[in-house]
Design a protein that fits this description.
about 280 residues; mainly alpha; 2 domains
Length: about 280
């Protein structure tokens, strides 16, 4: 399935960038890691396989499930349980992003999901609609994520035409923290939010049984981008003293409420449009 391969390609590209950047930069220039060299790079990759990759793999499994034999569906169920382990409290700790043994559990689920991709049957042909809207939304989100893409690759946008004027990245800033660069060299959760949103856009092109989950992924991804971007580009410029709450953890705040409401709205709108296309 082309869409699933594209999503795996996005995750593979990010994985390579994580290993390269975290291997070549010292730990004190990164964020909440202690290792360096290849060991540090692969350690950070294992954590990345937990979040966001395990949650994205759940969406892929939901798309693949109807295309698998009954025996392979049992394996897909096991993979889904392993991936879902990543959401348990303490499995991924923002304060310590070094790999631990329990991070191997969701990573194994991602590996199983990847293997099942090659064993799924070819899906029936479909005629997806809305690709123009998907391209426009995806392009806008990628432009907004430019500072985090640069941070993952280990450089700042300072001096880059247009982008260097729009976004602050290398500038020293502070907001209740010691003086630091506006955008750290690291994997930002804003970039992870971009991956969630792009995954939802891509996989929504194919028939699936996880449309509500895809809607939640898209809303959750944009919420993470909003939280990260507001702090770095608005608050740390001194334009506002109010922060957008985080949705990385499970807590009661207005952004989590807006995320859930938006996800349901996207799901209902998508189902209504699909129902309107069915022949009588």
């Amino acid at each position: 399935m082309r869409e699933v391969r594209v999503v795996w390609g996005l995750l593979a590209a990010e994985a390579v960038a994580v290993v390269v950047t975290y291997s070549r930069l010292p730990a004190n220039e990164l964020y909440n890691v202690t290792g360096s060299g290849l060991r540090g790079g692969f350690s950070r990759l294992v954590v990345e396989l937990n979040f966001p990759d395990a949650l994205i793999a759940l969406a892929i499994l939901g798309v693949l499930a109807p295309l698998l034999s009954p025996a392979l569906r049992w394996i897909a169920a096991v993979a889904a349980v392993l991936c879902a382990y990543a959401v348990l409290p303490g499995v991924v700790q923002q304060s310590n992003l070094d790999a631990r043994w329990e991070n191997a559990i969701p990573a194994a689920g991602v590996a199983l999901a990847l293997a099942l991709t090659f064993l799924a049957r070819r899906p029936p042909p479909s005629r997806p609609r809305g690709d123009r809207a998907r391209i426009v939304v995806g392009a806008v989100l990628i432009v907004l994520a430019a500072p985090w893409i640069a941070a993952l690759l280990g450089f700042y946008l300072d001096g880059v035409p247009v982008l260097g004027r729009v976004f602050q990245t290398g500038k020293l800033a502070s907001f209740h923290d010691p003086l630091h660069h506006a955008v750290h060299h690291r994997v930002d959760h804003g970039l992870q939010g971009l991956l969630f949103a792009l995954t939802a856009l891509i996989l929504s092109r194919v028939p699936n049984r996880v449309s509500l989950y895809l809607a939640l992924l898209s809303a959750f991804g944009v919420a993470n981008m909003l939280n990260d971007g507001w702090l770095e580009q608005v608050v740390e410029r001194g334009w506002s003293s109010h922060q957008v709450p985080s949705v990385l953890g499970f807590s009661v705040n207005w952004l989590w409420g807006a995320t859930l409401v938006t996800a349901v709205g996207i799901w209902v709108a998508a189902r209504g449009r699909a129902a309107g296309r069915r022949p009588p």
